[in-house]
Amino acid sequence: MPLLEPDPEALRPTLTAPCAPDRVPVRQARGTPEPLRGDLVALLGAAKVLHKISDLVRYASDASPYRFVPQVVVLAEDIDDISAILSYAHGKGRHIVFRAAGTSLNGQAQGEDILVDVRRHWSGVEVLDDGARARIRPGTTVLRANTTLARHGRLLGPDPASAIACTLGGVVANNASGMTAGTTRNSYRTLSSLTLVLPSGTLVDTAVPEADAELAHAEPALCAGLLTLKDEIEADPELVARIRAKYEIKNTNGYRLDAFLDAATPAAILRGLMVGSEGTLGFIAETVFDTLPLERRTSSALLFFPSLHAAAAAVPRFNAAGARAVELMDGNTLRASVRVAGVPADWARLPKRTCALLVEFRAADEAAQRAYEAAAAQALADLELVAPVPSVTNAFTRDPAAIGGYWKARKAFVTAVGGSRPSGTTLITEDFAVPPSRLAEACAALLELQDRHGFDAAVAGHAAHGNLHFLLAFDAAQPADVARYAAFMEEFCTLTVERFDGSLKAEHATGRNIAPFLEREWGPRATELMWRIKALVDPHGVLAPRVLLDRDPQAHLRGLKTIPPIEAVADPCIECGFCEPTCPSGDLTTTPRQRIVLRREMMRQPPGSAVTTELLDAYGYDAVDTCAGDSTCRLACPVGIDTGALMKDFRHRRHSAREEWTAAQAARGFKTVEKAARLAVAAADRIGDRLPATLTGAARRAVRPDLVPEWLPQLPGAAARDLPATRKADAAAVYYPACVNRIFGGPAGHQGPSLPEAGVAVSRRAGRPVWIPSDVAGTCCATIWHSKGYDRGNAVMANRLVEAAWGWTAGGQLPLVVDASSCTLGIAQEVVPYLTPDNRALHAELTVVDSLVWAARELLPRLEILRTIGSAVLHPTCSMQLLGDEAELREVAEACAREVVVPDDAGCCAFAGDRGMLHRELTESATAKEAAEVTSRHFDAHLSANRMCEVGMDHATGGRGYHSVLMELELATRPG
Q1: Which residues contact 774 (CB under 8 A, 6 or more apart)?
Q2: Strand partners of residue 736
Q3: pLDDT, tens digit, for every residue of 650-673?
Q4: Does the N-terminal peptide bond of residue 35 adopt cis geometry, omega within 30 degrees of 0?
Q5: Gap between the Cα atoms of 35 and 13, Å rounded
Q6: What is residue 20's DSSP assignment?
Q7: What interhelical angle do 266-274 and 220-234 show, nearest 10?
Q8: Greatest C-alpha distance within the chain
């Protein structure tokens, strides 16, 4: 055992809530039982079978209020794996649920037997016909697909609010639409073709001319049955009329019966049925979408009305004027949203009856935009608008920042209500649709129903389409609260169906909570047709039982998820999964959501639980050690949770007092540590990689892998011993060379000036000279300690640096320019909690500027570009995302290169200071997709803004020579 191996018990909960009714039973502590585990390992290989209880628990939750623990999780890599699993399940009488992003809101991504992950190995976009169509694999997020399509001026029709995380397989399987898709731009209308695997294992590509012939040969009974159903439906005029009427408004409840009316052949009928089938009829292996024009010119307004009725009355006007989106927010939603950063504080004083519409027009060119704005002005002419608080303008704008603020306010619905719900409560996000003409009436009825059942009354939604959303929070551990939820759902479903003839699910798909009410909406005739469809396509009931069809009238109350309180920083988590695509460890170990899900399960368990023991044994590496701590999850999270901060706190909790003391001593003696590190790098540069790799490997085994860095082949040589000479007199700023740039030099083969030399030279050239203090050695941004959770060492260095910076900058009169983005973030933000009160006051007077921001704002306007390169690829760092500096990075790069490319799969490299040397597998996993893009073509330069990120990308790309954009700017402006 390593000398300093952390004790997993340090993270065992000491204070727990009463044992939760949905806790994992002790009999499951050992994970997947035999023979299931052995069978699947023999069938697929050990790497594709996740069987530990920690694996099963982290996959047991999705964005819904339900929780079902699978027996096993399979990582399917290809169609052969899918076919093998289906065959196994058929032969053994087992059940399968497919899961991609897990952003489903009604339990569609959960199963109680075999759960198949179809996200990790199933991403990819192929642009067809210059963007008119796109072939997209099911594990690809909507955002990722649209990023690729944007280069061709195209985008997908479906635009769910979860686009950052939801995948196209799930979008099609749920017929998710969003704010602008309505009934004409959703998956059903824009899906050209798909490739699917039927429960029998038959592969069907609906695009090929011979699709029906091949299907008839492989599945004659299925083909005959589909055509029989078609004939029955078409022979019933009343049913045909009912089906057509149901899809005049948004509706994702049940199977898509209009597929039998819109298609003529079995393959085409299957294409339609698969949309919204929620994984119950087959596996969607590939999609081909007809894309839509990307109209980049936007005009938007946030319009305030005195009442819901006044706002609803205005909706048809904007629809007629051609608005792409008309979004509704009631007064309670508007007032609650002030909890979200960026939303005007005076909204808290809005009258209760106030309501707002966010109206947006999108156009391809100036002429079209002007025409839309003229139509909008006409629609506004005699509307009853109010401006009860100063921030309200009631005017259309083209300003991207203002428009972004409007959408932030609209999306604050879930953030404000979900994030502020009482601790320990489950959040349910519901949606339904009514004829748009009855929007105001439906809003008023819903608000009254929420209030009467004791739920926070608030509503928002896609007003243009009569699609409303609301949230319910209750404690699933309390029978009385569950009964209250049950009573609400009974009345809600009756209200929607009988009073409004609406859709119980407009865009979130049927799922477990509406399946018992399916017949109430559709009636017995149509519902029995749906049961016959399921029996015809999946006669053995292998796929997703009880997800879409369930005869149990209490099924929506089964498997409700308790939310035991956990650490305050993560307690508001609604388990939506928006954080997962940004997480660098997602394809290696766990995601932020899964880290929280696992922690909650520990809290559900009684003291001394064997389940908790097993979870803790895995949690150290899977959750704590392999978290990059980059905190980009906070940017993606709708309630702003920084899971990285929680993991750093857990690292701190695992430290012994002696470890904390040693770390503090290292901070106090950092000048010696820094010198020794530079000398070691210089020595390794002379003797080669083999010996340092052997020595560090031995030290890691003896001490602890999470403390001793591993020597990597792509590590650069040592930095120059001396920093460039500068003068304090007339300096426009203080230049702070980060310790990594005082230890490591440039990439292999680099012949030009070092980064500090380039920074000094280009600043002088622009007439904005900088000064490097002579006593920077031994100082650091403190990230070394902060990232590892060494609070005492962090405090030592943070206070030392701020005191030094105060002196260097003459009490904050000069800006402090930092030449590594992670260090900029550390000095500007992360040191603050560790400062003494006096030093916190000093810090407030400092102006900390990243070197790339300095270059963009202060240097570029004063410089002459003398030479440019042809192409450059950029790696924006996670620190720059957190600082909001990505635009400046691109601006400087575009001054140096005629073509600048940010890879579609660019993300955190997970090097995270030295974490990529502690766990090289983390960086290798995090950078795999970005590296594949980068190495697929030639670039004249590979640029970033942080030395260790550059080292990480060099490691990932086989030594492409990543370096700072500041160095490229120096070359571009160098005379001669």
Answers
A1: none
A2: 818
A3: 999 999 898 899 889 999 999 998
A4: yes
A5: 33
A6: P
A7: 80
A8: 92
Q: How far is CA 91 from CA 162, 188, 377, in A?
A: 37, 33, 65
Strands 355-363 and 154-155: unpaired
The residue written with tokens 């402006």 in the block is: 973
Model pLDDT, residue 594: 98
Instruction: Please give the pLDDT value at position 398.
Output: 97
Q: 122-130 — which CB contacts under 8 Å span 24+ positions?
A: 122/76, 122/167, 122/169, 123/167, 123/929, 125/149, 125/904, 127/152, 128/288
Rounded to whole angstroms, the Cα distance separating 29 from 762 reads 61
Length of the chain: 976
Residue pair 104/64 in contact (Cβ under 8 Å)? The answer is yes
Q: DSSP strand E in 228-296: where?
A: 283-290, 292-293
Question: Nearest CA to 76 among 172, 173, 187, 169?
Answer: 169
- Cβ contact 357:318 at 8 Å: yes
- In this prediction, residue 1 carries a pLDDT of 45
End-to-end CA distance of the chain: give it in Å, rounded: 60
| Strand duo 154-155 + 125-128: pairing | unpaired
Each residue of 606-632: pLDDT tens digit?
999 999 999 999 999 999 999 999 999
DSSP 366-431: HHHHHHHHHHHHHHHTT------STT-----B--HHHHHHHHHHHHHHHHHHHHTSPTT-EEEEEE
H helices of 639-749, in order, are 643-654, 657-668, 670-687, 690-702, 739-743
Helix (H, G, I), strand (E, B) or coil at 334: helix
* C-alpha closest to that of 298 among 179, 460, 467: 179
Amino acid (1-letter code) at residue 355: C
Q: Is 679 helix (H, G, I), strand (E, B) or coil?
A: helix
d(CA 69, CA 24): 8
Measure the CA–CA gap between 213 and 218, rounded to whole angstroms: 9
308-321 helix and 439-452 helix, angle to the nearest 10 degrees? 140
Residue pair 590/626 in contact (Cβ under 8 Å)? The answer is yes
C-alpha atoms less than 13 angstroms from C-alpha of 267 in its C-beta half-sphere = 22
Tokens encoding 893: 């790069």
Predicted local confidence at residue 716, as pLDDT: 84
Which parts of the chain sit beneath pLDDT 50?
1
| pLDDT score recorded for residue 715 | 77
The owner of tokens 């970005």 is: 930
Q: Distance between CA 935 and CA 918 in Å, rounded?
A: 25
- Rounded Cα–Cα distance for residues 563 and 582 (Å): 24
**Paired tokens of 335:** 């007032």
Cα 85 from Cα 88, distance rounded (Å):
5
Going across the sheet that includes 733-736, the strands are 770-771, 733-736, 816-818, 848-850
| Distance between CA atoms of residues 109 and 67, nearest Å | 10
Closest CA to 566 of 455, 652, 643: 643
DSSP label at residue 352: T
Which pLDDT does position 676 carry in this prediction?
87
* φ, ψ (nearest 5 deg) of residue 659: -65, -45
Residue with tokens 């808290």: 348
Cα–Cα distance, 239 to 364 (Å, whole number): 41
Sheet strands (E) in 884-930: 897-901
* Residues 858, 440: Cα–Cα separation, whole Å: 53
Task: Please answer whether residues 261 and 231 qualify as being in contact, where contact means their C-beta atoms are separated by less than 8 angstroms.
Answer: no
Determine the Cα–Cα distance for residues 92 and 672; give it in Å rounded to an integer: 65
Q: What share of the chain is helix, strand, coil (3-state, %, to 5)?
A: 45, 15, 40
Alpha carbon separation from 938 to 34, 901, 934 (Å, rounded): 50, 11, 8
CA distance 467 to 433: 4
Give the span between the Cα atoms of 285 and 287, in whole angstroms. Answer: 7
- Side chain identity, residue 958: G
